[in-house]
Amino acid sequence: MFLTVASKSLLNRKGSVAMTLMAISVAIFVLLGIEHVRQQARDSFASTVSGVDLIVGAKTGSLNLLLYSVFRIGSPTDNIRWETYEQVVADPAVAWAIPISLGDSHEGYRVVGTTSAYFDHFSYGKKRRLEFTSGAPFEGTFDAVLGSEVAKTLGYKIDSEIVLAHGLATTSFSLHDNKPFTVVGILAPTGTPVDQTIHVPLQGIDAMHSDWPQGPANLAIKSGAEPGATPAKPESITAFMLGLKSKMSIFGVQRQINDLKEEPLMAILPGVALAELWQMVGLFEDVLRLISALVLLAAVLGLGAVLLSSVRERNQEIHLLRILGAPPYYLFLLIEMEAVLIALAGMLIGGASLYVALILVEDALFANFGLYLEADLLTLEGLSILGAVLLSAIVAAGVPSVQIYTAASRYFER
After folding, report:
1. Domain spans of the chain?
2. Average pLDDT taken over every residue of the chain
3. If DSSP states are collapsed to H, E and C, what string results for the chain?
């Protein structure tokens, strides 16, 4: 009975109620959308690399090392001698290692020189391993394995030939056209920087530079090979990832690497470096939350204004309900119920609209930004936001509820 009266009362003012409902829906869409994207982006960054205990590079900032080794952003300060790498991975506590060599590109996409250990041990998300949609890992010196986005955007397939460029610019005139690479594998989409990366063997990187006209003429000789031949070992690498046999040894190995006398190195924990990264962008997140809160505030104030203006037009309704024996608190609760119904309807419309929008843009965000958004809004944060919206609507309806309660009480005096 009580719910029916509130519903019919709203239908009698469907014009103004519809506008208020739209404002609440937009506020819910923005509020839930920003929080959902923020949380999913954080989870997406955190899942870029999984199962790696330490990342090792030349002495630099921990964020810089994380960004260029994992996210392919920025440039390294120095390289690591191959002998030093072998010394570190010879530690009995080390289970596996993935060397990484950066510095070249192709059509704006980063090239990563590595070994077969990359495909054996690198994982993302919840320790998901890399998979191939076609082809297989590289075996030859001039084989290349493409990330899914590289292959899709540039239209490459198995057996396609690609020419790498020196440097990281989108357009480069320093091409290694003397040593083209052949595509032998294409990785499945991961939603990580792997999708935007070209993977080649470390030997291919050194062989490509060994007789490059603009490169050092004696590089091959330093590597123990004749000019133009494939070097047996690389001279240096940019960074490497370590997996340890026991988690208990992480800090001990980290300390040994940081104190290494032969060469200044830095070992970081990926999770700790990511936490530092999110501290830096925390201010931006707070600004987004503030904007969302202001949108919600405007919507609930509009709700209160609509209910307040309706009180002045409901003298006849108040009179009728009082004659039927409705006490003043009944009318008070009636206004509050109307606010709750509008808020609930706004949550339903706004949440459903966001759900549909996430489904529609899911593939585009994944392909263009490597950001995977799950259309799951029933999280703890989402439910907390909906609860806050409902409470705000009840508070906003307080003034018109008190006013109609006062007006109803006066009918005893008449």
Report:
1. 2-45+281-412, 54-268
2. 81
3. CHHHHHHHHHHCCHHHHHHHHHHHHHHHHHHHHHHHHHHHHHHHHHCCCECCCEEEEECCCHHHHHHHHHCCCCCCCCCEEHHHHHHHHCCCCEEEEEEEEEEEEECCEEEEEECCHHHHHCEECCCEECCEEEECCCCCCCEEEECHHHHHHHCCCCCCEECCEECCCCCCCCECCCCCEEEEEEECCCCCHHHHEEEEEHHHHHHHHHCCCCCCCCHHHHCCCCCCCCCCCCCEECEEEEEECCHHHHHHHHHHHHCCCCCCEEEECHHHHHHHHHHHCHHHHHHHHHHHHHHHHHHHHHHHHHHHHHHCCCHHHHHHHHHCCCCHHHHHHHHHHHHHHHHHHHHHHHHHHHHHHHHHHHHHHHHHHCCCCCCCCCCHHHHHHHHHHHHHHHHHCHHHHHHHHHHHHHHHCC
